[in-house]
Write a structure and sequence with these properties.
Elements lengths: L6 H4 L2 H11 L4 E7 L2 E6 H16 L8 E5 L4 H12 L3 E4 L6 H11 L1 E6 L2 H7 L11 E4 L11 E3 H4 L17 E6 L9 E5 H11 L10 E4 L6 H14 L2 E4 L6 H8 L3 E4 L1 H17 L2 H21 L12 H13 L8 E4 L6 H9 L4 E6 L6 E4 L12 E2 L4 E4 L4 E5 L6 E2 L3 H7 L6 E9 L5 E6 L4 E2 L5 E2 L1 H8 L5 E7 L6 E7 L1 H11 L12 H14 L9 E7 L18 H7 L1 H7 L6
Parallel strand pairs: 1-11, 3-4, 3-5, 5-6, 6-7, 10-11, 12-13, 13-14, 25-26
Antiparallel strand pairs: 1-2, 8-9, 9-19, 14-15, 15-16, 17-18, 18-20, 20-21, 22-23, 24-25
Helix pairs in contact: 2-3, 3-4, 8-9, 12-13, 12-14
């Protein structure tokens, strides 16, 4: 039995690493893919590598409290650099590998970064376009060996890492020390640097173990970027606390293969990942014979009934006797695509559609939804396995208190609340009151059981010209239950009616266009009145549970996906509503022509 390390034992995040090495030196810590093969690092191996990185960083002449940035995909080197930096009292600033160069330069300058670690020549090509804007950086360090760059500040790890190091790793610092500045990928304005302490993150990782217990036998598959607080706390520090193995996925396109190769027991993902799996299932069912759809629906209905019965909310039914057969014919075949060993799937970072969670739970996968913010390290609440209301975001984790303020805004206090925003006292005062309670900006309800239900964002509520208030997120999630749509945005601020911008699923669109009797590849197909009429009908079906005024009257149908590359999504895949509105201002205006605003 592998012992769980408490925050009191660890004291700091580097102390957590040292304790894990001491307790289980020969246990596998990380699994990664290199040179066409999967390789392992034990905790003892990691200790050796962290010592080498510590010597390299000492050689640069950094002072305690200096900021150093990590711009790597998920890999063992991310952990090595992070731990080595913490051993010297440095403050890490994670950067997204997919971020725009100008945004990276802004963060580097705002944080006063002294060292920037990146990986590839392609990344350097992007960084070199803004290197003159990053004059405060003493050293750029590349994992790959780069030649003839013309930049004196650039070194590869082969040039700075010693072949060995006899440095002793010892605990340093106090729990309340600043350990990391994590920049929020805001949907509007410049990102703000969230200052987190050792105690913030340690307490949050430890409290999260209440929602989904983890043991030394568990295997995580890490694919959400470690620059995202959700993955960093739950997919890096929490497994270290419990002594579990973390395997680093090769890439999102290879995620399906990695799931079946690694066969993880726990999966941490944002809703978009589960929605893609759900969409693939629905598309395959749509294209297949009707009896397979009926069998699938029977399996999900039966599995959901069993889940409700076990939760104490539903009766026992004779149909449950069919479950072993339905599990073999339907459920297990689908779950095998996720590796076949998953015992818990965790969803966070955004709202998960109730239909998507119902399907996975109905297939027998324990799925728990949680909620949090970068400013809260990040977990505020989560569903427990034995007290799981999938449509909620669960109950507050241990040590965290919640209440409702003005406009039913959720407010939070606890050991996980940030120290403040870096060099931005005004923004800090705006979000944290004098009593220490943090304003989340989310509208919530709290049930009699203490479960939280997030019903919208205060700033994202649409107020129509007739005064009706619309929460767009709920409507968008409902519309996305239709596999025809990949992405959706509701628009209608100060307008007489709502319109929907929808991005099509290419596969489903092809068969849909065929049913309508038009060619899917024709540009005019997207504005064909027959297509719009049928699309609006499909949208209306999914919105039938909403009030009458929450009706979509017109639709803008698009093929181009909204992405980070075209600046319509943040690095954490949140929709930049203002940017989407600006991009499609002209066609949106046409959807309101002939109507007074």
């Amino acid at each position: 039995m592998v012992a769980v390390i408490s925050p009191e034992q660890a004291v700091t995040l580097h102390g957590l690493f040292i304790d894990r090495v001491r307790l289980t030196p020969d246990k596998i810590a990380y699994r990664y893919f290199e040179r066409n093969a999967w390789r392992d690092f034990t905790w003892r191996d990691m200790q050796v590598e962290v010592a080498r990185w510590k010597v390299a960083l000492e050689g640069i002449g950094l002072q305690r409290g200096d900021r150093v940035a990590i711009m790597l995909r998920n890999c063992p080197q991310w952990v090595m650099f992070d731990q080595a930096a913490m051993s010297l009292g440095l403050v890490t600033v994670p950067l997204y590998t997919v971020d725009r160069p100008d945004n990276t330069a802004y963060i580097v300058n705002n944080a006063g970064v002294r060292v920037l670690l990146f990986e590839t020549a392609e990344q350097w090509q992007a960084l070199r376009t803004v290197r003159d804007q990053m004059g405060g950086v003493l050293r750029f360090i590349s994992i790959d060996h780069l030649r003839n760059t013309g930049e004196s500040r650039l070194k590869s790890i082969s040039e700075i890492l010693p072949s060995s190091a006899r440095v002793q790793l010892v605990p340093t610092g106090s729990p309340d020390d600043l350990v990391s500045i994590i920049y929020t990928s805001g949907t509007t304005g410049k990102p703000k640097g969230v200052m987190l302490s050792h105690a913030n993150i340690l307490s949050n990782a430890y409290a999260s173990l209440d929602t989904f217990p983890v043991s030394g036998d568990d295997v995580f598959l890490s694919f959400l970027p470690l620059s995202h607080t959700f993955e960093r706390t739950l997919g890096y520090y929490l497994p270290m606390m419990a002594g579990a193995v973390v395997a680093f996925s090769r890439s999102i396109p290879q995620l399906s293969d990695d799931l079946q190769l690694i066969r993880p027991t726990l999966l941490i993902a944002v809703p978009r990942i589960y929605e893609r799996v759900y969409s693939a299932i629905m598309t395959k069912l749509h294209e297949g014979p009707s009896f397979k759809r009926r069998l699938f629906n029977l399996a999900v209905d039966t599995g959901w009934g069993i889940f409700e019965h076990k939760q104490g909310r539903g009766p026992w039914k004779y149909s449950f006797l069919l479950w072993p057969l339905l599990q073999q014919l339907v459920a297990q075949k689908i779950l095998n695509k996720l590796g076949g060993r998953l015992r818990v799937a965790i969803s966070g970072g955004a709202a998960l559609s109730s239909e998507v969670s119902r399907v996975f739970v109905g297939l027998g996968l324990a799925m728990v939804q949680g909620y949090g913010l970068t400013e809260t390290s990040p977990v505020i609440s989560g569903n427990r396995l034995a007290n799981n209301f999938p449509e909620s975001v669960g109950q507050p984790v241990r040590g965290v208190q919640v209440r409702l303020g003005a406009q039913s805004e959720l407010q939070v206090t606890g050991p996980n609340v940030m120290l403040g925003y870096w060099n931005n006292e005004e923004a800090t005062r705006a979000i944290i009151g004098e009593d220490g309670w943090l304003n989340t900006g989310d509208i919530a309800q709290i049930s009699d059981t203490g479960h939280l239900y997030i019903t919208g964002r205060i700033k994202e509520i649409i107020v129509m010209s007739n005064g009706e208030k619309i929460p767009p997120n709920d409507m968008e999630l409902a519309i996305l239950q239709d596999p025809l749509f990949e992405q959706v945005m509701i628009f209608g601020e100060a307008r007489p009616y709502l319109v929907a911008l929808v991005v099509l699923n290419a596969t489903v669109w092809a068969s849909f266009a065929k049913e309508v009797g038009i060619r899917a590849d024709m540009p005019e197909a997207l504005t064909d009145s027959r297509v719009e009429s049928r699309v609006l009908r499909r949208i209306a079906i999914n919105l039938r549970g909403f009030p009458g005024y929450a009706k979509v009257n017109r639709v803008l149908i698009l093929r181009e996906h909204w992405s980070i590359d075209n600046d319509l999504l943040t690095p954490t895949h949140k929709l930049k509503r203002d940017e989407v509105t600006r991009r499609y201002a002209a066609p949106i205006k046409q959807l309101y022509e002939g109507h007074s605003l």
